[in-house]
C-alpha cells in the first residue's frame, strides 16, 4: 500500500487522479516576524486567527521596508493564492483576494501558490479542505500531541483528489455560490431574529 493510500483509503472517482498537493502547486511557508517589528499600521501580518475569521485586513502589521526584506527572503502570498492554517484551526483555508501586499506568520499559516498553477483551481482547493477525506488526512499528517501542527512537508504530501481543471472550476464555482447563499440566509435569519427581539422588547416595555 502506498503512503497516500494509507491516509486516503478510498477509490478515486472515474477520471479523477489522486495527487500530492505539492505536485499540483508550490506550497510555501514564511518567517516569523519578531514582536519588536509589529506595528499598528502598514502591511497586514496575517496569523492563524485571521484565517479562522476569514479576515485578511489584519490585526497586526509590519513596515513596508520589513515586508520587502522578508518577501525577498521567503516570498509572500499573491492575489489568487490559497492561505491555510498550519496551527490553530488546522486546515482552515481561504483565497487571498487582495492585490495589496500581505505577509503570513511562518509555521502558523501556509499558502498554495495557485496564482502560478495551471493544475489546481483555488475555489476547488478551498472546498477540498473541508471534505472528510482531506480532514482525516491532515489529522494523520499533523504532528504533536494536544497542540498539533500541520507543517510544510506534510502539507506538500497531502493527498488530494483532482478532476480536470475545467471540472475543478465548475465544482469550485458551485460551492462558492452555495457558500454565498448560506451566508445570505444567515444574514436574513439574523435580521429576522433582531426584528423579533425588538418587537418583544417594545411589548415588554408597554406592559410595564
Automatic annotation (TrEMBL):
<dbReference type="Pfam" id="PF01420">
    <property type="entry name" value="Methylase_S"/>
</dbReference>
<dbReference type="GO" id="GO:0009307">
    <property type="term" value="P:DNA restriction-modification system"/>
</dbReference>
<feature type="domain" description="Type I restriction modification DNA specificity">
    <location>
        <begin position="15"/>
        <end position="188"/>
    </location>
</feature>
<keyword id="KW-0680">Restriction system</keyword>
<dbReference type="GO" id="GO:0003677">
    <property type="term" value="F:DNA binding"/>
</dbReference>
<dbReference type="InterPro" id="IPR000055">
    <property type="entry name" value="Restrct_endonuc_typeI_TRD"/>
</dbReference>
<protein>
    <submittedName>
        <fullName>Type I restriction-modification system specificity subunit</fullName>
    </submittedName>
</protein>
<dbReference type="InterPro" id="IPR044946">
    <property type="entry name" value="Restrct_endonuc_typeI_TRD_sf"/>
</dbReference>
<dbReference type="InterPro" id="IPR052021">
    <property type="entry name" value="Type-I_RS_S_subunit"/>
</dbReference>
<comment type="similarity">
    <text>Belongs to the type-I restriction system S methylase family.</text>
</comment>
<keyword id="KW-0238">DNA-binding</keyword>
Amino acid at each position: 500500500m502506498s503512503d497516500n493510500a494509507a491516509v486516503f483509503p478510498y477509490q478515486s472517482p472515474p477520471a479523477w487522479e489522486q495527487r500530492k498537493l505539492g505536485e499540483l502547486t508550490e506550497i510555501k511557508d514564511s518567517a516569523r516576524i519578531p514582536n519588536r517589528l509589529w506595528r499598528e499600521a502598514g502591511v497586514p501580518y496575517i496569523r492563524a486567527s485571521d484565517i479562522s475569521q476569514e479576515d485578511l485586513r489584519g490585526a497586526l502589521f509590519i513596515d513596508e521596508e520589513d515586508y520587502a526584506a522578508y518577501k525577498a527572503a521567503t516570498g509572500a502570498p499573491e492575489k489568487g493564492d490559497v492561505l491555510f492554517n498550519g496551527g490553530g484551526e488546522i486546515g482552515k483555508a481561504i483565497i487571498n483576494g487582495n492585490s495589496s501586499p500581505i505577509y503570513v506568520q511562518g509555521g502558523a499559516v501556509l499558502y498554495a501558490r495557485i496564482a502560478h498553477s495551471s493544475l489546481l483551481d483555488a475555489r476547488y482547493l478551498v472546498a477540498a479542505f473541508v471534505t472528510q477525506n482531506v480532514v482525516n488526512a491532515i489529522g494523520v499528517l499533523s504532528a504533536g500531541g494536544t497542540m498539533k501542527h500541520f507543517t510544510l512537508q506534510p502539507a506538500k504530501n497531502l493527498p488530494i483528489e483532482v478532476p480536470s481543471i475545467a471540472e475543478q472550476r465548475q465544482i469550485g464555482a458551485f460551492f462558492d455560490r452555495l457558500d454565498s447563499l448560506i451566508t445570505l440566509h444567515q444574514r436574513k435569519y439574523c435580521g429576522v431574529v433582531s426584528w423579533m427581539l425588538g418587537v418583544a422588547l417594545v411589548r415588554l416595555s408597554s406592559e410595564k
